[in-house]
């Protein structure tokens, strides 16, 4: 079991490590770009704890914005490395994150939100008791943890700051909407995934991404020899329910 100080320091330490990881990726892009990443089209996101971490990596700019009751704890992490990290965030690169997808995440306080070019999409269940969509202590207040600000107040502060922010909030749904994490939902469907909400979530994320990706700027795809596909037949076209793929017998597929 963790106490509140330990949880805050784990979050701050993880944010420092996360920034180092981003620096490593950006430096790789500038040095021959072995992973063929288009620096102009980087999107990030997370679910639950991953989103809490990602939001803090992205939004925390000034150490003074950390709530006063946590500030001294934050300054102790990694020998005071947080201040150095914030002074040289992304190792001197401009903010590389074009968009962030927050699923059931939260932050220590909306005071850390300042104007940014990053856009946001928030997906959250309104009945979430693990990470409140509003303001509350995680796990319904049953653990020694700081009060967190969930997707609703994050969205409201982002809009107030003139930042593009979209939401998809689910009525009567708990933590990580597309998962049946409560026993009642699980035994009603005998499936960990809520198929309807999963599809709705994926469609909303796809629409969010496609509305922002500039295809003409994208790094060209890895070349593939097209002659492999010359003799493939796909029918019927248009298709309603099923389609057939006919492959040449002389090839191994």
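-> sequence recovered:
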């Amino acid at each position: 079991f963790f106490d509140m100080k330990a949880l805050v320091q784990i979050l701050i330490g993880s944010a420092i490590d996360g920034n180092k990881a981003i620096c490593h990726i950006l430096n790789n892009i500038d040095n021959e770009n072995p992973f063929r990443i288009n620096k102009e089209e980087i999107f990030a996101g997370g679910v639950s704890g991953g989103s809490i971490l990602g939001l803090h990596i992205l939004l925390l700019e000034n150490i003074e914005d950390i709530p006063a009751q946590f500030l001294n704890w934050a300054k102790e992490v990694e020998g005071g490395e947080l201040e150095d990290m914030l002074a040289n965030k992304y190792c001197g690169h401009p903010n590389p994150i074009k968009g962030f997808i927050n699923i059931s995440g939260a932050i220590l306080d909306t005071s850390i939100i300042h104007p940014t070019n990053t856009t946001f999409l928030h997906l959250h269940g309104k009945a979430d008791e693990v990470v409140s969509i509003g303001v509350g202590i995680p796990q319904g207040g049953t653990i020694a943890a700081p009060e967190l600000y969930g997707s609703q107040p994050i969205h409201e502060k982002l809009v107030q700051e003139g930042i593009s922010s979209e939401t998809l909030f689910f009525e009567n749904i708990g933590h990580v909407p597309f998962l049946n994490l409560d026993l009642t939902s699980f035994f009603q469907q005998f499936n960990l995934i809520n198929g309807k909400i999963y599809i709705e979530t994926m469609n909303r994320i796809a629409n969010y991404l496609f509305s922002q990706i500039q295809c003409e700027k994208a790094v060209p795809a890895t070349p593939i020899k097209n002659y492999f596909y010359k003799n493939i037949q796909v029918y019927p076209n248009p298709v309603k329910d099923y389609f057939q793929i006919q492959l040449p017998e002389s090839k191994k597929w």
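The first helix runs from residue 4 to 30.
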